[in-house]
Structures are given as C-alpha cells and as structure tokens.
Design goal:
By secondary structure, the protein is of the alpha/beta class. The protein has three domains: about 130 residues, Fumarate Reductase Iron-sulfur Protein, Chain B, domain 2 (Orthogonal Bundle), CATH 1.10.1060; about 170 residues, FAD/NAD(P)-binding domain; about 160 residues, 3-Layer(bba) Sandwich (FAD/NAD(P)-binding domain). About 35% of the residues lie in helices and about 15% in strands. It is built from 20 helices and 15 strands. The strands form four sheets. Strands 3-2-1-4-15 form a five-stranded parallel beta sheet, sandwiched between helices. Strands 6-13-7-8-9 form a five-stranded parallel beta sheet. Helix 13 packs across helix 15 and helix 15 runs parallel beside helix 16. The protein is globular. It comes from Loktanella salsilacus. This is Glutamate synthase (NADPH) small subunit. It holds the Pfam family Fer4_20.
Length: about 500
C-alpha cells in the first residue's frame, strides 16, 4: 500500500543533507549542502503526513503539488515526482536551492507545528530535479506546432525566463533582451555560487536556447535599442527587468572610495567565478581580500555579501543591522550559516558617518582620505511600524567607530524610472516607481504590454517572479488568441 510508505515522521527524524564544514566551504564558492542519496531522499520524503489541507502547498507561491511529489519520491517513483514538480514550477532545481523554505512551505508544515521537525521539502525538490537532469528526464522544448506570433521579453531573470519557457512550449516565437552578457539576471550575477552554482542556471539557459528562444544580450533598452522598436517588432511585450537601483545612504562620507554597492560587489565576484577578467576585482576595489569589511543591511543580499567576503579572504566581516535578529528580513538559516563561517552580526546598529581616522569622531569630520571606519549609532526598538515590526530608535550619544577598509551597501533595491529611461509615453507606474500592472494578468496601461516580477512587486523572491512570469505567459496567450480571432473576422 502506498500509505505504508508515508507518515513516518513519528519514527524518522528530520535530517538535512550533509553540510560541508565551515573551514572546508569557506575555501571555495561551491554549494555548501551535499546531495541526498536515493535512500535518504526516500526516507525524508516518507516523513510527510499527507495531510488533508496541505499548508506547504497553500503557502507556496506556485502552489506546488508538494505532498504528491513527496509521496512519489518515497515510493521510488522519481521520474513521476519530477514530472509533477515541473508541472507547476519552471525551475524547481533553483527553488530547491534558494527559496526561503523556512518562511514558506517548510515553515508551514503541519508536522513542524506538532513538534516533529518539518519535512526537508527544499532538499528533496533539489534532489528530484538534479536527478532528472542526470537521467535525461528533462526533455528539450519541442512545440507541437509553430505559431507566427512573436513576443519580446525585456529581462532574462527568473520572471522573464519562466514566461519564455511557457510561451515557447506553445509555439510562440520568443526573443529575450537583456543588459548583461549572460542570461539569468540575479540568478547568474546576484546570487553567489555557494547558494546556487552557475552551471545549474546555465543548463536551463541552454535548454531555452536549444528550444528556440532567441537571446539578444548586452542590450540596454533605451540606449542600444528603443522600447518602441521592440514593441513594433513583436505582437506582445513582457517587461521583466527586475529592480536594480540600489537604495543609497545619505550619511556624511557616503560617497567615499571603499564604499560600494552590493550588486556591483556580487556581480564582480560571480564574474570571477566564470573566469571573466574583472579589473575592479583585480584592483581591490570590489575584492575583500585582506580587508576589514562592514556590510550594512539585514536581508538575503547582505547575507550573500558577508559570506562572499569571508571566501575572498577578508580579515574580519561584520554586518550592521538596525533591528535585532528576530526582526531581520533575511533567512535565519543564512544567518546561522554566516555565523558558522565567521561573520559577526552587530545588531541594533546603524551607520552615522564614514571616517578616515577614528579621531574624526570627536569633531564630526567625515571622509577626506582613505576609508578607515564607520561611526555606528546604537539603536533600540520602539513601537511597531506599519508592517508590524518594531521601529528602530536612536540612542542619543551611544556611538562608536567600527574599523573598515571596505563597506558594502546592501540596503535593498528600487525600480529604475523606466518611462524616463526608455522614453516611453503612457506606461503608468505606481508611487513607488514600479510598473502599474493588473494583479493577475500583468497587463499594463499599454496595449499588448505586460509586466512581471520585481518590476511590479518591488524587490521580492525568485519564486514570486517565476509565478508572475508563468501567469503573464498565460495572459499573453489569451491576448494573442483574441487578436488572432479578431484578425480572422
């Protein structure tokens, strides 16, 4: 009986894949978790309670059929498990690696609530799809028939690629435009290899190219090619640019040499891992080797920066965050990994100014020479803000100097001003600068133009971008079908 394979959470303990030791993993940028063996994957999948109301599924943005593919894995029916997983998720091997499962599926697992430890959903998901690639179960994209309609997608990140996959499978001619020299967006250049090795992303890129998706890379829309030209070439357009504008600091000395943006720092590191020549890395500008590093921020990007700095050979790495551990937005799992690797978290702290000499603290002078430190204000938590989190408040007179040779700003991302950048009339944006789009279809104020992912939501999770890309692809198919029906009349 299939049921005999499941509900083993009372006798089988939660067991994550083996994690490489901190000393071992900080020597390279390889992923830190090893792969499950088949028997271990089956064992851990068998812990699923197969509950009647699967909260893991309902709290997954993609509504993945998690209990079904866990049961199939427990029964050794791995190819079927992959097919079920792939049916709702374009990139399960990526989500299995970088989704914050502790806040989504695993954080809402019923057996976790009863004290038995959540099912290791993410690790099993990763194992299923990695095995599928190894066994040749990941099939090429081959539409049953070709269609004449074409769609232009601006942005080769997870949202744009998910839409490209869905549209191409239905025979649509798809062209993806991206500013970088490789597709993948932040999957390629923003997320370090220790969380997502780049060959994983490149395999999906190769699948899309082999399936007939055309990529126009090194293309800055508004400079190399106008938005109107893209719109004129295609029957529909999807804007999936993500958000790349860094939230900045206005503290005295914030423009000094030695203070860099997280996106620049992470991109340089990832380019080096590809073997690219990166002058800013070689010069030391975007390289933490031998330096005292301070990262400002408390999200997942900040975690990526501190852990990258450790691997680059920083002499010390400290993370300043204005709230406490319980109120930080980043994954607690990532904080634990960072602490194991030697990162020091300085909670309830915010930058006051940047100095070139500790003595400058006394007379309030900021930078005039090389960066030597950050004047740090100590904070306390006050009343909750609109999000429900306690607001940080300054403690008067409580400040000190934190020595630093390199400061990385990881304060989050905001949307670029696309209408101005692209010279587009009529593209409506919200008061936050994101593209104004229908919540379910992604339809914008321009006919035949859709938008998906962070450029609509603001900075969010990869899994939400995948969902938005898939939803927009469905809406675009409806739009093209309606346009075709009108043309045929």
């Amino acid at each position: 009986m299939a049921g005999q394979k499941m509900l083993k959470f009372t006798t089988v303990s939660r067991d994550m894949p083996e994690k490489r030791s901190a000393d071992d993993r900080t020597e390279d940028f390889g992923e830190i978790y090893r792969e499950y063996a088949a028997a271990k994957a089956e064992e851990q999948a068998s812990r699923c309670s197969q509950c009647g109301v699967p909260y893991c599924q309902s709290h997954c943005p993609l509504q993945n059929n998690i209990p079904d593919w866990l049961r199939l894995t427990a029964e050794g029916r791995l190819q079927e498990a992959y097919e079920i997983s792939q049916a709702t998720n374009t990139f399960p091997e990526i989500c299995g690696r970088i989704c914050p499962q502790d806040r989504l599926c695993e954080g809402n697992c019923v057996i976790e609530q009863s004290g038995h430890g959540t099912v290791t959903i993410g690790a099993v998901e990763k194992y299923i799809t990695d095995t599928a690639f190894d066994e040749g179960w990941v099939k090429p994209i081959r539409p049953h028939s070709e269609r004449t309609e074409s769609v232009g997608i601006i942005g080769a990140g997870p949202g744009g690629l998910a839409a490209a996959d869905m549209l191409r499978r239905q025979g649509i001619q798809v062209t993806v435009y991206d500013r970088y020299d490789r597709g993948g967006g932040l999957l390629t250049y923003g997320i370090p290899g220790f969380k997502l090795e780049k060959d994983v992303v490149m395999k999906r890129m190769a699948q899309l190219e082999d399936g007939g998706v055309e990529f126009v890379l090194n293309c800055n829309v508004g400079e190399d090619l106008s938005f109107d030209a893209i719109r004129g070439k295609h029957d529909a357009v999807l804007i999936a640019t993500g958000v790349y504008k860094t939230r900045d600091l206005d503290n005295p000395g914030a423009e000094a040499d030695g203070i860099v943006r997280a996106i620049d720092y992470l991109t340089a590191s990832n380019r080096v891992s590809f073997g690219d020549e990166v002058p800013e890395y070689n010069s030391g500008e975007l390289n933490a080797n031998g330096k005292k590093v301070v990262v400002i921020g408390g999200g997942d990007t900040a975690m990526d920066c501190v852990r990258t700095a450790i691997r680059q050979g920083a002499t010390s790495v400290k993370c300043l965050y204005r709230r406490d551990r319980n109120n930080m937005p980043g994954s607690q799992r990532e904080v634990q990994n960072a602490e194991e690797e030697g990162v020091e978290f300085v909670w309830l702290s915010a930058p006051k100014m940047f100095v070139d000499d500790a003595a400058n603290l006394n007379d309030g002078r900021a930078i005039s020479g090389p960066l030597r430190g950050v004047v740090v204000d100590k904070m306390r938590l006050g009343q909750p803000d609109a999000t429900g989190r306690q607001s940080p408040e300054l403690i008067d007179g409580a400040h000190y100097v934190e020595e630093a040779d390199l400061v990385v700003k990881a304060l989050g991302f905001e949307p670029e001003d696309l209408p101005a950048l692209w010279g587009v009339d009529g593209l409506e944006v919200t008061r936050w600068g994101t593209v104004k789009a229908d919540f379910t279809t992604g339809k914008t104020s321009l006919d035949g133009v859709y938008a998906a992912g962070d450029i609509v939501r603001g900075a969010s999770l990869v899994v939400w971008a995948i969902k938005d890309g898939r939803d927009c692809a469905a809406a675009i198919m409806d739009y093209l079908s309606q346009a075709g029906a009108v043309a045929a009349e």
